[in-house]
DNA sequence: CGCAACGATTGCAAGCATACACTTTTGGTG
DNA sequence: CACCAAAAGTGTATGCTTGCAATCGTTGCG
């Protein structure tokens, strides 16, 4: 739980949680249309529109128009936005790696198999659940 | 991660994250003075004062004056507020119990020792970290 | 008592998220 | 072409959080 909390903590000093959710979805799915994006994170189009205004202003995403349909607006991560998400995920991975570094290979192996066991029993975690925290 | 996310998800439909942080701190420490409470969750007194206004309005906490010093205001959970926090923690415990229920005693034992190993290696998790998500 | 420090609150202001209703532009279809 | 539906955005409004500065009551001390 501490690992999860810390991984969220860093990002929340830079962007808000709803904003981070947008970035995470885009990182997972690539550029998305406003409508699809809004549905993915569960907000109304008007809410998303203004949220994107602010995220564009901050430089994390870009609005693009698809050549085939000028009424559709594609949202895509800028390099900075991509960087932000990647960095956040790396930080958590590093945090875990650091924790594991003090353990012996046998201990690590035991942890890996136990975690896999637990994850298997937990079943598929819905993307929506993870999206709540942007993880 | 899914377990953590779900445990936060339910509560966030009832109170905001800053509000839930207040409740969690009170649940941990018992009734607190405004100043102490504000410092614990890292907000300015003015912010807290208005936040408490809303939480009192919602019925989760109560303002009390200490007999010895009438300028100090004690904040304490109402039964409803206590219930909210307790319920949130129970829900996470139930969620984990349900996951574990499909496993054999041996598997459970392996998971317990592996998790203890990991938690030990991770060291003490600072309360501040956990407070970010109200966990 | 009088004054300084303390503790909480309020005035004022800004930013963000959210919702409902409405408008504008665009695409598809009869 | 004319019309309808899709897609995005605006107008308007509400509520929460946060911050800085100022105020009000209270306590402690000389």
UniProtKB/TrEMBL annotation, chains A, B:
**Residues in HTH marR-type domain copies:** 1-120
What InterPro entries does this protein map onto?
Answer: HTH_MarR-typ (IPR000835), MarR/SlyA-like (IPR039422), WH-like_DNA-bd_sf (IPR036388), WH_DNA-bd_sf (IPR036390)
User: Pfam families this protein is in?
Assistant: MarR
Respond yes or no to whether keyword 4Fe-4S is given for this record: no
Biological process according to GO: response to stress
- Keywords tagged on the record: DNA-binding
Molecular function terms from GO: DNA binding; DNA-binding transcription factor activity
Q: Which residues are the signal sequence here? A: none
The protein in question is named DNA-binding transcriptional regulator, MarR family
Q: Which organism does this record belong to? A: Cryobacterium flavum
């Amino acid at each position: 739980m501490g690992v999860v909390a810390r991984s969220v903590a860093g990002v929340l000093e830079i962007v808000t949680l709803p904003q981070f959710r947008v970035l995470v979805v885009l990182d997972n799915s690539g550029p998305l249309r406003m409508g699809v994006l809004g549905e993915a994170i569960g907000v109304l189009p008007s809410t998303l529109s203004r949220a994107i205004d602010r995220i564009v202003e901050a430089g994390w995403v870009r609005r693009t128009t698809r050549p085939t349909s000028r009424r559709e607006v594609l949202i895509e991560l800028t390099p900075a936005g991509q960087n932000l998400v990647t960095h956040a995920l790396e930080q958590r991975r590093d945090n875990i790696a650091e924790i594991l570094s003090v353990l012996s290979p046998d201990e690590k192996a035991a942890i890996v198999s136990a975690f896999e066991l637990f994850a298997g029993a937990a079943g598929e975690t819905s993307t929506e659940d993870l999206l709540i925290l942007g993880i």
